[in-house]
Design a protein that fits this description.
The chain is of the alpha+beta class. The chain has 3 helices and 7 strands. The strands form 2 sheets. It has a 5-stranded antiparallel beta sheet with strand order 1-5-4-3-7. Helix 1 packs across helix 2.
């Protein structure tokens, strides 16, 4: 085992909403003590990767902010009992990578995976206290984010080159630029 070049500095919960689908339940002494499958629900994820903070010197690692939003919705006419929304923002440093594009790809893929693990545990812990049973989000991967981030970097590079050619720059554009992807997963 060896340490990862990705270091989680901090994370913040921005949203945690779990509500029973289909309105108020009938009061009953019956308990569901098992876990609930996501077979009758859709899981969507939205990921934003912020622009890296410029290191103060070459020895300092670039820092990235990543926002993950998860949405679980019951399929129409299904018995899945919850609507779930989780939002997290994570702050990561990437050590030992001289290339910012490589560091950004690493932060996007692995940082999002770290945040997903946090969200998965939050959903499980909170739904355990609901009468309809616990929900464990499925295992997923975010490898496709690497390609999205790389394509976005090429696009931004081409845009910067064309702006440099026209001698016009917009400092706010860099701050607002981000990579975003939305995926739908079914288990």
């Amino acid at each position: 085992m060896k340490p990862s070049p990705l270091e989680l500095d901090d994370y913040k919960l921005t949203c945690l909403r779990i509500e029973q689908a289909g309105g108020e339940r009938t009061l009953s002494a019956k308990r569901n003590e098992g876990r609930i499958s996501l077979d009758d629900a859709s899981l969507r994820a939205s990921v934003d990767v912020g622009e890296p903070d410029a290191p103060a010197n070459d020895a300092e690692a670039p820092h990235f902010a990543i926002r993950l939003r998860l949405f679980v919705e019951p399929d129409p006419s299904s018995a899945f009992p919850y609507r779930i929304e989780v939002g997290l923002e994570g702050f990561f440093a990437v050590h030992g990578s001289g290339d910012v594009a490589d560091a950004r790809a690493l932060a996007a893929v692995n940082g999002t995976s770290v945040l997903y693990g946090v969200a998965r545990e939050l959903v499980l812990a909170q739904t355990m206290r609901f009468g309809d049973g616990a929900v464990m989000l499925p295992s997923v991967h975010f490898l496709d984010l690497k390609k999205v981030v790389e394509e976005k970097a090429v696009e931004e590079s081409n845009t910067a080159a064309s702006k440099a050619g026209s001698k016009r720059t917009n400092p706010a554009a860099k701050k607002l630029a981000r990579s975003s992807t939305t995926r739908r997963a079914r288990r």
